[in-house]
Amino acid sequence: MRKLAAGNWKMNGLALSLPEARDLGRMFPSPACDILICPPATLIAQMVWTVQGSPVKVGGQDCHTKVSGAHTGDISAAMLKDAGASAVILGHSERRTDHGETDALVKAKAEAALAAGLIAIVCVGETEAQRDAGTTLDVVGAQIDGSLPEGATAANLVIAYEPVWAIGTGRTPTIAEIAKVHAFIRDRLTRHMGADAAGVRLLYGGSVKPSNATEIFAVPNVDGALVGGASLKAEDFGKIVAALSAAA
Ligand SMILES: O=C[C@H](O)COP(=O)(O)O
């Protein structure tokens, strides 16, 4: 499978300047992995224009369940697609926390994304309290069961495992812990999708940076990364893309 380096700019404007984004595409004219940048919605169309002709793709950070209608402030998957996005992050822990998003809502959003022809990047992960209670696999399993969209295939679904306590903290699980959770997710997906689960890309997210990327990308069932802070600097994100390309 093609591995995936995805950058999530979150609510940061021109974090990676547009010329830098264009340069990122030039740095990797034929990368051995897929590269995706998910800027704020206001920058999607501009980013699509900026990276056109390069291997860099652009994605959204959320979408509504409906195609259109009276939903002030929301953006539909179809609108993301129209703007040139090819994927959308769904169920990120910050949305689950800030907006009370449930597994059922994430599933409905993911189904809307698939209907619009987008790749759904569904995020799962335990809080620190859940980890300390030894319930990581129970939590992640329930999130997979509840958030997985109908119609998911290896081509249109990506799962991102992001321990909430590792996001933006500089802390990461041990390599053994990442391996254990990713193997568990693969197994859980197989229950739902059968053999197709083998081709679903499983991203690790949470304090991925140039200094730990190579080690994390060597873990079985880690098929790329969802990168927050380190995607805001072209140089750092470029190094992570290079590490993933080397692991491909
Ligand atoms: O979506 C990205 C994740 O929340 C990871 O963020 P981080 O790399 O800043 O820890």
UniProtKB/TrEMBL annotation:
Its EC number is 5.3.1.1. Pathway: Carbohydrate degradation; glycolysis; D-glyceraldehyde 3-phosphate from glycerone phosphate: step 1/1; Carbohydrate biosynthesis; gluconeogenesis; Carbohydrate metabolism; erythritol degradation. One of its GO terms (biological process) is glycolytic process. InterPro entries: Aldolase_TIM, TIM_sf, TrioseP_Isoase_bac/euk, Triosephosphate_isomerase, Triosephosphate_isomerase_AS. Keywords: Cytoplasm, Gluconeogenesis, Glycolysis, Isomerase. It comes from the Bacteria. It catalyses: D-glyceraldehyde 3-phosphate = dihydroxyacetone phosphate; L-erythrulose 1-phosphate = D-erythrulose 4-phosphate. Its main location: cytoplasm. GO terms for cellular component: cytosol. Homodimer. Involved in the gluconeogenesis. Catalyzes stereospecifically the conversion of dihydroxyacetone phosphate (DHAP) to D-glyceraldehyde-3-phosphate (G3P). PANTHER family: TRIOSEPHOSPHATE ISOMERASE (PTHR21139). Belongs to the triosephosphate isomerase family. This is Triosephosphate isomerase. It comes from Neotabrizicola shimadae. The gene is tpiA.
